[in-house]
Queue: 3 jobs
Job 1
Amino acid sequence: MGLISRFARQTNFEMKTQTTLTVFVLLCSVVSAHATIRTVSNDANRPAQFADVQSAINASVALDTVYVNGTQYVYADFTVNKKMVLIGAGYNSSNQFNLVTSVNNISFYRDAGTQDGSGTVITGFKINFGVGIAGGSLLISNLRFFRNQMNGMAFGAAGATNITIYNNIITSGIDGIFQGSNVIIQNNIFTTNVGISRFSQSSVVIDHNLFVHGNAFGGLQFATITNNIIIASDNTRVMDGNVVNCTFNANLSLSQNISPGSPTNSFLAQSNTGGGNIVGADPLFTACSDFNNFNYSFNYRLQSGSPGHNIGTDGTDIGIYGGQYPFPTGGTAGGGYDTSALPPIPQITGMNIQNASVLPGAQLKVSVQATINN
């Protein structure tokens, strides 16, 4: 992962070999730092300050930033016990070597002493198993997750509040375990079932998401569920019988099998309320040949003739390209990286050393390609 310019461009650098470190420092300075910046790589051939994330966290103080390089190896699990900014290289990177920042599990911890992972930001990670908000005796708060791919997230017995989850690909689900409050889940892609389950607070908002499979909702109470698209074509039920007293507005389901309650083809069964929902309609994506499986090459933007076009409660398209956090692009639509946005920092995507062997005092010619990743 590298840092360089404000706009994506091809730039040629001619530099003397002894100035390489100076240029690296200047490149790092373009990023707005949170206190100290630390770097991590678990590839011995591309070393950084630390070989594992936990060591970097242990050496940090609150508000430090840790950059975790993309490599071909999976990083060891780590626990966040202080307020951090953790930035990976992405989960499906379109850079020169297609290296991602992969880890199996991330957990959070807060106790009555000095350890408190509240306020942490996580972006650019491929989390293979899940995020656990479970450690310690006190409630975790003010977490933000965006532009990650994660298998799932589970809120622990101590609970969590003020959690914002947006622009992620979630391959399993988010389980509130009836302990989560003030949770915002917006503009994510859920690829398997069950998508979101066991939240029981009116402060939970589920908005502008795409659920590729059925069983999108389970065990929800009092949640506000708006502007989502559920596209399973195999007639899988959208919600279970424990989704009650929720508000459903401007959601679209391809399937007519919505609820086990009566009527079964309505979001408003089981004491749920709302309006403007669409049942049994094709959302008319720009390009999607399989409604039951997620694919990086699909284009989930709505066509102008879509029944979901501009009908959202906020006047935008329903689904992941409307609302407060429209899903950012990671590459050309249909090219395999459109739904794989990198962290929003300047990042080198390719580099070519044109004269790898030079005499002392001679110029090293390097061609660098980079993007800002807005």
Job 2
Amino acid sequence: MAGIYIHIPFCKQACYYCNFHFSTSLKRKTELIQAIAKELILRKNEVSETIETIYFGGGTPSLLNADEINLILKSIYDNYNVISSPEITLEANPDDLNIKKLDALKKTGINRLSIGIQSFFDDDLKALNRAHTAKEAIETLLEANKLFDNITVDLIYGIPNMTNKKWLKNLEIVFDLRIKHISSYALTVEPKTALHQFIKKNKYPNIDEGLALEHFKLLQQKTKEKGYLQYEVSNFGKANYFSKHNTSYWLGKNYLGVGPAAHSFDGKHRSWNVANNHKYIKSLQENQLANEKELLSKQDIFNETIMIGLRTIWGVSLKEIENKFGKSYLSNLLNSANKHIVNKNIIVENNYLKATPKGLFLIDGIASDLFKV
């Protein structure tokens, strides 16, 4: 089984914290959608497995209309072997969604919405330069619940000046709306973003890691009380509502990424498309792919296995490490892991190396410490 990711590189406005590839000009939207459909045709022989998930990410895919979504989906169904009921996710912003748009999206075959809420407080939304209001966020979720059963919301914690009380209120609203999946991330400062510049010029408070840790612990506690399972560092789902598409990444399955800046993985190679809309469109109009490809070394694959495995509830199979990479890799891994086991940040359970709830907040640093260098 494999998945297809479609990167839609358009946004109404730039969120201050975002470093993804996107454009706020929609002038070439039609050409870009046609280019994505063409790329899907040109790359059909790269995927032999059955497609079980399709994911529209971005950017802001909810800027597409139903005809544009249908054009892309037709290109997938015409050229790939897709299971009868694939998970089809669309990332969306509240300001793009009303009952008419939601109904149109439902008719395309989309069956999962990922809605970028971030916060239910207007001062937070303004500070992040989000295009919607808190009122719109709640109204949108109420409407979306009428048509979609499988909804996830994005929330950001660790926002400067966000008290624990405000953070708990954000979670309470999600629980009250009976949303079955939450993706939640700490606010981070990425280079070349507006947020980075604001902090550098003392126009915005710096990130407080202590505050972020407090929020993370509250997130773990409250979601557990409400029956969510933290199956990945940033993802919390009710039973049967985990993201199948994102889970496939974490389990090391193959996926095809189309659109500008999209990445692909076939088990041995990593490839990525040019992060430039004009160059991407021009290449596809000439029936050429605008991507680069690299063969991953044994060490690269090992490091990635450690990184993604430790972020999940499933952990890293020590048996798989030995079978796939050899006894020396396993021995080095266990030696490096020992101090983190002593500190109770990771454990060995049923021959799997797993992060503890305490260790999850620090897991990226811990994982990199276990890499083969």
Job 3
Amino acid sequence: MPSRRPSRRHDFLARAVPKLRKSRELDDPARERARVERWHATLPSALDRPLPTGLVPLFGRRFAVVTEDLDGYAVHTITPRHTAVTGTLLYVHGGGFMAPIDPFHIRFACRLARRLGVRVVMPDYPLAPEHTWRDSFDSMLSLATRLAGDEDALLIAGDSAGGGYALALALAMRDAGGPVADRVLLLSPWVDLSASTPETPEFAARDPWLFLGKINLYAEWWAGSADEVTRPEVSPALADLHGLPRTLMLCGTRDALAPGCRLLARRAEETDWDLTYLEEPDLIHVYPLLPLIPEAGRAWRQITSFLD
């Protein structure tokens, strides 16, 4: 584990981002559900929702975007212009399963597209609490399987909730016995929605962004019920991990999801799965996606070396 301390820029964003996102602990489950549903009601429909490209200068000149209907929700394919495209990256966005694609996801995906010479396929999957994993998993699996069959090497990536979803898709592709991903990238993934690790409350107490009450509530929303949170489609860290594609996982320790990542890494050591886990002390949730911090630059070099 590196002995370096977080940068001042990181510590500034660790304070600023949660404030900008109005992050706070759960007050009342019913009130939280009503708040999220009101917010969702203000969003365009799943097929009409545009990509939030505010953090990507000259987006239209540098990238072509095609949006298609997949089982009632949008799938965006982002292709870099003036770049030789040689493959595909399926990127599953985070947001606690209750927030749509945001500019940080687009910025990171577009950087990967240009750097690796790939098109990025980004589904805007149906969100909780109105929807559970059952409303998109089969169609997402079909999409991933088709892309793996069409490409010499499909890359699958995801951050936070999207990281858990990405791993669950890799598991399902393995079990289906058809085409599989070549490599998987997981950024601060939410892989254990049951919060089964006893150290989770301790880590959550240090996390300025994620709060345990909301984590548990959003997990139940996505699973459909508290009894379903241990399913492999929901908590892939608890599944059989044999025979998975080569994977890189990054997480910081100022992150309530770090215990789940550690659990996944421990369980991977008991299998044939080639998982590399890079853990950074005192860094916050999804730090590789944050702009202008040296820790994200270091993560970028680790990620592109792995995916090249």
